[in-house]
Design a protein that fits this description.
The protein is mostly helical. Helix content is 68%, strand content 3%. The protein is built from 9 helices and 4 strands. The chain has a two-stranded antiparallel sheet with strand order 1-2. It is elongated and about 85 Å long. It starts with 9 loop residues before the first helix and ends with a helix. The model has no long low-confidence stretch (mean pLDDT 87).
């Protein structure tokens, strides 16, 4: 503890950082705080080091989330600083992969959005197996996407078999690309609506821009968290 450290009761620490006393106890039990001292009567005694730990955790949590942030703090308080930094590194690597995925989706979708639906090999449209083979997915995936309302292939008279026209195949390509970029169905639906309505434009651009803004905000929050952790370790 620092030379200017002064004893803090649980309620004092809770008030200093805007938490309840029970939250403070829970954080100590979870290792987010270093172990507290005890009075002869068994009451917890905290100090400025504990206040610093709570403020560091709060900043870490904004960037690294409620799973990684406590693990980082617990590793630090267990004396495993390399392990804590490895968790930080892994979170940044994951964020980088998301950016790579976003860039790939943006490039693929921009190319798709500006093109007219391609003519299909053979007249009369394609069956589900042919579409699956053409775009590189399983037929079960196409059925799931149809069940979610993302695809609406026609049906062949008499047999009831699905028939995919050029626009249907284009839509399937878009869904495949966005799903590989970890977009949710509710995020894909407006993109497809925009493609069908205007050939690709604003809904597609808005979805990608929104995801890019979220990644940028998370990066900034992670940088703030890393800075707070560096100061705490020092």
């Amino acid at each position: 503890m620092r030379n200017d450290d002064r004893p803090l009761r649980t309620v004092d620490l809770a008030r200093a950082v805007g938490l309840s006393t029970q939250q403070v106890r829970n954080y100590e039990d979870a290792g987010v705080l270093p172990p507290a001292g005890r009075t002869e009567a068994g009451y917890r005694v905290f100090g400025e080091r504990h206040r610093d730990a709570l403020l560091t955790y709060r900043t870490l949590r904004q960037g690294y989330g409620p799973v990684t942030a406590p693990r980082v703090m617990r590793a630090v308080h267990e004396g495993d600083v390399p392990g804590a930094l490895a968790l930080v590194d892994a979170a940044h690597a994951e964020l980088h992969e998301e950016r790579v995925s976003l860039r790939a989706a943006s490039e693929a979708l921009q190319a798709l959005a500006g093109r007219e639906p391609e003519p299909l090999p053979g007249p009369g449209g394609l069956r589900i197996g042919e579409v699956a083979s053409l775009i590189g997915v399983r037929t079960s995936a196409l059925r799931v996407w149809e069940g979610a309302g993302l695809l609406t292939p026609g049906r062949e008279r008499g047999t009831g078999y699905r028939v995919y026209g050029p626009a249907d195949v284009r839509d399937a390509r878009v869904v495949r690309t966005l799903r590989r970029g970890h977009h949710l169905f509710d995020q894909i639906r407006p993109v497809l609506d925009g493609l069908r309505r205007e050939g690709g434009s604003e809904a597609l651009r808005a979805a990608l821009e929104a995801r890019g803004h979220r990644l940028t905000a998370r990066t900034r929050a992670m940088l703030a968290g890393a800075g707070a952790l560096h100061a705490y370790l020092a």
